[in-house]
Design a protein that fits this description.
The complex is a heterotrimer of chains A (490), B (375) and C (309). Chain A is an alpha/beta fold. Chain A folds into three domains: 206 residues, Rossmann fold, CATH 3.40.50; 184 residues, Rossmann fold (3-Layer(aba) Sandwich); 68 residues, no CATH class. Chain A contains 17 helices and 22 strands. In chain A, the strands form six sheets. Chain A has a six-stranded mixed beta sheet, with helices on both faces. In chain A, helix 14 packs parallel to helix 15. The longest helix of chain A is centred in the N-terminal third of the chain and has 16 residues. The radius of gyration of chain A is 25 Å and the shape is globular. The N and C termini of chain A lie far apart (51 Å). Chain B is globular. Chain C is mainly alpha-helical and 309 residues long. Chain C has a single domain, classed as ABC transporter involved in vitamin B12 uptake, BtuC, CATH 1.10.3470. In chain C, strands 1-2 form a two-stranded antiparallel ribbon. Chain C is globular. Classes of the chains: A alpha/beta (490), B mainly alpha (375), C mainly alpha (309).
Chain lengths: 490, 375, 309
């Protein structure tokens, strides 16, 4: 690949294609086994991030590399600290950061602690960090994943500015629409190899997706299949929930979920979705309001109780919240039901029964390799998620709550998960889909609630889906009439 | 029986650590006395001291030459097993139980009181005393568990603090105050009153040795812990909590209950150690616990890689070593050598990964770190 | 009454340095993300080395020997924890046990089971001018250890919050991966902090055997290392906080001894055992009250793996 000064080049590919790995090599975090990197014609080797920084390459990581308790100024100058008489010169640090901000049109509270800033601001700090070090090549890894549409536009403006002033921007993204909007050239990677290069102005999403995947089969979606809604499963009224550090996360949220439908929650990260899922699943208490599940008022339920009543939960953070990596696949399947048949009999583990059930589920859900005794940590993300779904769906739940079900999965795994969710709906379950991927929410949901700052700002039935409108509702820029009972027909 | 090769491989780091510790101390003795044969002799004496004076026995046919040593070794091994299990059981739910010393102290004093002040028939008396000790230890271990679950206080610090609290209150108050030995009227006796004969743990080999029922009890406990962990769903849930607390909670396991229950179990085991010590060897609570049995338990547990059978094996090995340690003195080698061997073995076990790479085992099964992006 | 307070203040200033240095050593190591339970062991070898060295060299130099002994033990901990990413609590605990048994062995084979022969204690200095002032004169007449213990925390605080090195240490303790992306070597920062922690802990041990007492006594430091850890937690992993907490504990201990000797009736009402247990109970109470708001460095205890290299 090659990159020229003053241009914005994008790198696209599925998860696992090798985009981030490649960029980690370029930023000095990894060492390549073979091949070369040429900067202005000279072969270069990076032995550490230090070398890359010295060659004016700066990486803005997808997961921020910021230190929460330290201030903006401290984070920016870390590693290149201005000193005065042996001590840290904080004034000089502050001034330097201010100057860099001004030069590129940012405004940041220099003395604020990172942990007190919004995600959009934190990203700006990341960008200032690399600019402070004199980066001429900026690598942005999935920068828009956590931004509101507004903040995205801001970012694109910044990118264009920087390109215009001679910087080179390498954009890694899987958001094809955005990539087409900003990038002059687009490289497509698949399975660690470069497979195509296209001009941004000359291509479209369909073509890119096809190049990325190899075949252009689209993800399943509900389409226009109408379905009659079933009984009222979940009724939440005026729910107030406290989040981290006692800050209110839900401030009077109300919604309803019926059987045989998929309800999607659309919202920018940090507006209460996580706490909503946790509250419903019994993992977080609420301070006021009520939740009724299948007609019964819930009072501080425990997750175990809820599962018995028919509520299944697939949390985000698969590795830490859904599976126990060092345990085997069958043990993971047994979690939570380990005291009952077929997993146990009278308090003693029923190994044969457990094995049999696990094998059956592995086959049904097409988990590879279908080895019940393999350590689940060794499976790929997609297969792990299949196991989790298998476990939850084997409960034959009435309500399935899934959060970020396809994060980090490759396209075929995403497809498989979506099929399962729709199958559950088919079989009469209600599905609450909480996802930051608006496309996913749009393609799977019968109804969408938009959430902003802990409240529902609007509700749309499938016929009314309008991305721009949902975007506005997600950002509180438009408020519907207060959420009322959904219209009589599904 | 494909289990054995893999069991052996799993035990390898511990075995190698012990071997290396033995080697290092051997060299230390040899160098400090500038005499290889003294070192060899010392080790031999340690062995005979622990397993019985084999040469003399072969010469005279006097069984007591063997059984006496077995009694000493078994007594020490039993205590190490219980405290070792107390630590390893807590590890199952992911808690580091440094408080075995305090739990043992509390158990011991309760056993001493029940043994001395309560009149019960011979079969029941030790059982009740042991049960009381177990209960006391369990309650004492619940304290740090509650602090951890409800207030997030790290158990390493709280158990260390509670150790000292137990020692202070028991040894510096109860034993010299309200519970001081008064029955005989002889105020020069330290410790508590002697326990009644009905409370004594039966000697298994009569007058041939001090081998008492504590040892088989310890072995049974180790097997019991193994069974609990691997065959019951209760143990399964505890393991799940230890390996992935959040996932266990999300899946509906009652994490709090498991944590409390397991810590109580651990404390009970340490309490039983105290009971066995009082009822089997000392017959009262003497002025002080004397040895850091609780800390030894930590070493034993880690050397045994927190596996109940490994703990049992390590306990027996070091029990033999300890019992034999007194004989080393005859050669001018200090009797605290077994403790040093134990400490070094633990240090070498701590460097597990070194062994892993030495044995070329692939330790690279690392679950991908969430933070470094992988495309 | 005033004399009693003065006496307690005086003995606090005598006893506190050991605890203060050990607590600071713990803070240094843990701030960079490495748990250091081994402070007790490092104090023990430091106390022993200093007492033994003082038999042949001037006591002042012997203190250096103590510091080196602590650093030596710490370097093992550093090597295991950083290079081999072993469990840091286990490694620290193992070193405690090795120090316990090893020093006992050396003590009993070369000297006597109860302790080393007496040495010349560190000289006590009189601070001119305040001899006549009640209460304040308790500040005079201490060894260099005491005065050092009043200065080092401030220096440490300055170093941690106002130097580039201090910023990097704090960064590495919170999010080592972020530091790596900026070209900072995590291990190159952690080795010095752990070994530095050992130096301080060794200094604390040396304070016991050369200033507080005049020899190594068989049980040293008798759990002081663990109180130092409590002081570190109390003080929220900051130098000044640890200093304050350590001083508080030392003061409490001095209070207990002072009461026992000057008001023996107290012991009839409150048994010695309770008073001995008091500092530990207080620590627990404060920890329970602090709850989950402890400000431990975020990466504490998590071995750092440099990816892809």
């Amino acid at each position: 690949m090659d990159f020229e000064a003053g241009e914005i080049v994008a790198l696209v590919g599925e998860n696992g294609a090798g985009k981030s790995t490649l960029m980690n090599v370029l930023s000095g975090l990894y060492t390549p086994d073979s091949g070369e990197i040429l900067i202005e014609g000279q072969p270069t080797r990076f032995r550490s991030p230090r070398d890359a920084i010295a060659r004016e390459i700066g990486m803005v990581h997808q997961h921020f590399m910021l230190i929460p308790p330290l201030t903006v100024a401290e984070n920016v100058v870390l590693g290149l600290e201005p000193r005065k008489r042996g001590l840290l010169d904080l004034t000089a640090a502050r001034n330097a950061v201010q100057k860099t901000c001004q030069r590129f049109g940012f405004s940041l509270p220099v003395d604020a602690r990172i942990e007190d800033l919004t995600v959009g601001s934190q990203q700006k700090v990341e960008i200032i960090k690399v600019l402070y070090r004199g980066a001429r090549v900026l690598i942005l890894d999935e920068p828009t994943a956590v931004l509101t549409p507004q903040e995205c536009d801001d970012l694109f403006a910044v990118m264009r500015e920087l390109a215009a002033s001679g910087h080179t921007i390498i954009l890694i993204s899987h958001k094809l629409r955005e990539v087409l909007a900003v990038a002059a050239r687009i490289y497509v990677m698949r399975r660690g190899k470069l497979v195509a290069q296209v001009q941004g102005s000359a291509s479209n999403e369909r073509e890119l997706a096809a190049l990325m995947v190899g075949d252009a089969r689209p993800s399943p979606s509900i389409g226009s299949a109408k379905r009659d809604r079933g009984e009222l499963l979940l009724e939440i009224e005026d729910l107030h929930v406290l989040g981290a550090q006692e800050i209110p996360a839900l401030r009077g949220l109300s919604l309803r979920i019926f059987a045989s439908e998929v309800v999607g929650i659309a919202g920018v990260d940090g507006n209460g979705q996580r706490e909503l899922a946790e509250a419903i699943a019994g993992l977080r208490p609420w301070t006021s309001g009520s939740i009724r599940f299948r007609g019964e008022q819930l009072r501080n339920p425990s997750p175990g109780e809820l599962r018995h009543r028919g509520l299944a939960h697939v949390p985000e953070d698969r590795l830490s919240r859904a599976i126990i990596a060092p345990m085997t696949v069958e043990e993971n399947i047994a979690l939570g039901r380990d005291r009952e048949p077929p997993f146990a009999r009278k308090g003693l583990i029923d190994f044969a029964g457990r094995r049999e059930r696990a094998s059956r589920l592995l086959k049904e859900f097409d988990v590879r390799p279908p080895d019940a005794q393999a350590r689940i940590g060794l499976l790929s993300g997609g297969n792990q998620q299949k196991v989790v779904l298998a476990r939850e769906l084997d409960l034959a739940p009435r309500l399935l709550v899934v959060v970020q079900p396809t994060r980090g999965l490759d396209i075929s795994a995403v497809r498989a998960v979506h099929e399962r969710l729709l199958l559950a709906r088919e079989r009469g379950a209600g599905v609450l889909l909480i996802s930051l991927d608006l496309d996913e929410v749009l393609s799977l949901s019968d109804r969408i609630y938009a959430i902003f700052e802990g409240r529902i700002t609007g509700e749309l039935g499938r016929a009314e889906f309008d991305e721009k409108r949902i975007g506005r509702l997600m950002m509180g820029a438009e408020r519907e009439r207060p959420p009322r009972a959904p219209s009589a027909n599904a | 029986m494909g289990m054995f090769p893999s069991l052996f491989r799993a035990a390898l780091p511990s075995l190698l650590s012990i071997a290396l510790a033995l080697l290092v101390c051997f060299i230390a003795i040899a160098v400090s006395r500038s005499d290889l044969s003294i070192a060899a002799n010392a080790y031999l004496q340690m062995l005979w001291g622990g397993l019985g004076d084999v040469p003399s026995f072969l010469g005279s046919g006097n069984w007591s030459l063997l059984t006496r040593a077995w009694g000493e070794s078994a007594a020490k091994a039993a205590l190490l097993t219980f405290t070792g299990l107390a630590v390893s059981v807590a590890f199952c739910v992911g808690l580091f139980n440094i408080g075995a010393q305090g739990q043992m102290t509390v158990g011991a004093i309760v056993a001493a009181v029940i043994g001395a002040k309560v009149a019960l028939p011979a079969g029941l008396h030790p059982a009740v005393a042991i049960a009381g000790a177990a209960g006391a230890g369990a309650l004492y271990a619940l304290l740090p568990a509650v602090l951890k679950v409800r207030r997030g206080v790290h158990e390493v610090i709280s158990t260390i603090m509670l150790n000292w609290v137990a020692v202070s209150l028991v040894e510096n108050w109860l034993v010299v105050g309200p519970l001081r030995a008064t029955a005989s009227g002889d105020l020069s006796r330290s410790g508590t009153d002697e326990i009644l004969p009905t409370a004594e743990l039966p000697r298994l080999l009569g007058s041939l040795s001090r081998l008492n029922a504590g040892f088989p009890l310890a072995v049974l406990s180790a097997v019991g812990v193994w069974f609990w962990l691997n065959r019951t769903s209760n143990g399964f849930e505890a393991r799940a909590v230890g390996l992935g607390m959040e996932a266990a909670r999300t899946a509906g396991i009652d994490v709090r209950a498991r944590v409390y229950q397991t810590m109580a179990f651990a404390g009970a085991l340490a309490g039983i150690a105290g009971a066995v010590w009082v009822l089997g060897t000392e017959y009262k609570f003497p002025a002080t616990l004397g040895a850091p049995y609780g800390f030894d338990g930590i070493a034993i547990s880690l050397i045994g890689q927190n596996h109940p059978l490994g703990v049992g094996a390590a306990a027996i090995f070091f029990g033999v070593l300890r019992a034999g340690g007194t004989r080393m003195q005859l050669l001018g080698v200090h009797k605290s050598f077994p403790e040093l061997i134990q400490g070094l073995a633990l240090l070498f076990v701590a460097g597990r990964l070194i062994w892993d790479s030495v044995l070329r085992r692939s330790a690279k099964r690392a679950v991908p770190m969430a933070e470094v992006p992988r495309a | 009454m005033l004399e009693v307070i003065e006496a307690i203040l005086f003995s606090t200033l005598d006893y506190a340095p050991a605890l203060i240095f050990a607590a600071l050593g713990a803070v240094l190591s843990e701030r960079s993300g490495i748990v250091n339970i081994g402070v007790e062991g490092m104090m023990r070898v430091g106390a022993f080395a200093a007492a033994v060295a003082a038999l042949v060299v001037p006591t002042g130099a012997a203190v250096g020997a103590g510091m080196l002994a602590g650093a030596a033990l710490a370097s093992i901990h550093a090597y295991l924890s950083i290079r081999w990413r072993s469990d840091q609590v286990v490694s620290g605990m193992a070193l405690n046990l090795v120090a316990l048994a090893g020093v006992t062995f050396l003590l009993e084979t070369r000297y006597s089971p109860t302790g080393t022969p007496p040495i010349a204690q560190l000289q006590r200095w009189t601070v001119g001018g305040i001899d006549g002032v009640p209460l304040l004169r308790a500040l005079s007449g201490h060894s260099a250890m005491t005065y050092l213990a009043l200065v080092v925390p401030a220096v440490f605080h300055l170093a941690l919050f106002r130097t580039a090195a201090g910023l990097r240490i704090r960064a590495v303790g919170e999010k080592p991966l972020a530091a790596t992306t900026l070209g900072i070597s995590v291990s190159r920062l952690r080795y010095p902090t752990v070994i530095g922690g050992g130096l301080l802990a060794g200094l604390g041990g040396a304070a016991l055997s050369t200033a507080t007492l005049d020899r190594f006594e068989q049980h040293m430091p008798a759990g002081l290392g663990f109180i130092a850890l409590a002081a570190m937690v109390f003080g929220r992993w900051t130098p000044l906080g640890a200093f304050g907490a350590a001083a508080f504990f030392a003061g409490g201990n001095a209070l207990r001894i002072g009461l026992a000797s000057s008001v023996p009736r107290v012991l009839e009402i409150v048994p010695q055992g309770f008073l001995l247990a008091l500092p530990y109970l207080l620590t627990l109470l404060v920890l329970a009250a602090q709850g989950t708001k402890s400000r431990a460095p975020a990466s504490l205890g998590i071995p750092f793996e440099a990816e892809g290299k």
